[in-house]
Request: fold
Amino acid sequence: MRVLFLGTGAAEGYPAIFCECAHCSTARALGGRNLRRRSAVLVNDDLLIDIGPDMVASMHATGANFGRVSNLLVTHSHGDHVQLANLYMRRQSFCATTPALMDVYGTPPTIEGIMGAAAARSLAADEFHLRLNTIRPGDSWQAGRYRVTAFAAAHAPELTPVFFALEQNGRTLLYASDTGPFPAETWEQLQDFAFDCVIIESTMGIGPPGTHHLSMHQCVEHHQRLADEGRLRPGARQFATHFSHNRTPPYLECVDFFAPHGIEPAYDGLVVEV
Ligand SMILES: [Zn+2]
Ligand SMILES: [Zn+2]
Ligand SMILES: [Zn+2]
Reply:
């Protein structure tokens, strides 16, 4: 699997649009890997995880082509992870070619949100070339050439958030954003997996432990527990993502923080061959 990080920032982006804090000011001055769009990843050319507000910008910056995406996994319905306006652009008046039929997978609040937005414009999902699939935490299913498993997350429980494992060609990826501390049932479900690549959020930065998001220390602890429980295959790559300006230092300081633990901070445009 080829994983392209389209964005690695939290809800407000990094730097945040109206913020002049030290982290945002440093990021503006240094540019490069310090600039983070809202989080999403493209797997190969046919599977997206999340479809937030920066899809056009990420396409321009990375050269990604979303026209062949036939599977969209949505972690939860926060605006930095799903923007219905992007799906609206699949209609004929905005898209001259007919995009591939896209299967969308999300928990009930996500799917109901998409259906509600379409209904508000008196449109059917067909007009967007979408097939909406309601999934629940703990489910496992086939999405095109991928075996997908959804794990329960502690983040924003009213939205029934999930995060995903993808299996393809004998390789296994874990993309865990936004999670908070993994629930007990999720740790149990993870016992069935061995990962070649693990990506975990670290939104709270160098701060106190979070209950709906993870700090950088908690991110390390989650990676470490997966390793301790034998969930990592030899040579597995480990990443942190979904960085907020509030307590996350500039990119190179993140590199130094995570390096002793064998973890790399992801950055926008990073490509990983899993
Ligand atoms: Zn988020
Ligand atoms: Zn800031
Ligand atoms: Zn969220």
